[in-house]
What we know:
79% of the residues lie in helices and 0% in strands. The protein starts with a helix and ends with a helix. Helix 3 runs antiparallel to helix 12 (208-235). It has helices at residues 3-25, 29-37, 41-52, 54-65, 74-90, 93-105, 111-140, 145-170, 172-177, 189-200, 203-206, 208-235, 242-255, 267-278, 283-311.
Amino acid sequence: MSRTRAWLWLAAWLFTTALVLLLASRVDARLLGRVLQQADFRWLVAAVASNVLIIPFGSRQWSAFLPGASPVPPRRLFELFAFTSVANNTTPSIMGHVTGVLLLGAEPGVGRAAALSVLALDQIAVGMLKLAVLVGAALLVPLPAWMRHGFLALAVTVAVLLTLVLVAAIQHNRVNALKSHAGRAQWIRPALDLLGRWTRDLEARRTPRRFARGLGWAAAIKGAEAVAIVAIQRAFGLGLPPTATILVLAATSLATFVPFTPANIGTYEASTYAAYRAIGLPSETALGLALAQHVCQLVPAIGVGYLLLTARR
Length: 313
């Protein structure tokens, strides 16, 4: 590693460490300790292990959405996704997405336009799976009013984004033609160049098979989350029906829809707590499940990328 790269690594590691410590300071350690003492440690480990799978599944989803002319080795994609996961869970989510675009765009043969296309397709796939989970929950149990309102907002957002990306992918040639009409407005040409490359790189959206493959990996991520939720329930000695797991998964999907705080601390617990209360669990049990579930989600979401960053030479 060159001296410049070594200093950049050190700066990134120190900054990430500060973010992790800041996030940890927001957690009520005493309350968390009392909650975890009541749980079966083996099932907590199983929940963490299931959530670890989100990292490789997410990197495979990125691979499906990358343009064919922008190959990135699977191991490197795994690292980039893990680093992005750290940023997503220690800063507001918009900063995490920016980090992902910058990291992926800096890879040889990728570029900002391709990275932006991956982000757009990733968000569409994630949104579609969240909608599917909410629809499944609505078919099985009556949704609380707040979840019905969130479902409508999510549906509108996904529909708008999907329409925008679909039109951009189909009208790629027309977008490129706009550059010839820019005339003397040279200030707008860089933006048009980026827009043209972005629409070109929406290759997976023009190829149903590739988009379906990315959608399949997004479904695998939701499956891993569902397994982790079941493991948390078992850690507290609960054998709840599948409808409870689907309702909780739907609630956490809404909690991460509009992130207001780093790692969704507060909103994640509140939505999970409300879901468990809706199925009749006591408030203390519902709170314990919500806290343990979020911790078992954050440990791998932050830990994998942080360990990779620490281990780099």
